[in-house]
Write a structure and sequence with these properties.
Blueprint: H1 2-18, H2 21-52
Length: 58
């Protein structure tokens, strides 16, 4: 998912360079949403991993 956020960021930068304001704004918005979704998913997986911990069968 971070890959897609990065790709939309690159599209936004290229569109901004060429002066396509609407396209750049839309791509930047999508990249920002994907970044926050990725960040929340990372935080949730980190908390779940810490809560579950390592269980060994000895």
């Amino acid at each position: 998912m971070l890959y897609w956020a990065f790709m939309f960021f690159i599209i936004a930068v290229i569109a901004a360079i060429f002066g396509f304001g609407g396209i750049a704004s839309a791509a930047a918005g999508v990249a920002q949403i994907l970044f926050w979704v990725f960040l929340v998913a990372f935080a949730v997986s980190l908390v779940v991993g810490l809560v579950r911990g390592r269980k060994t069968n000895l």
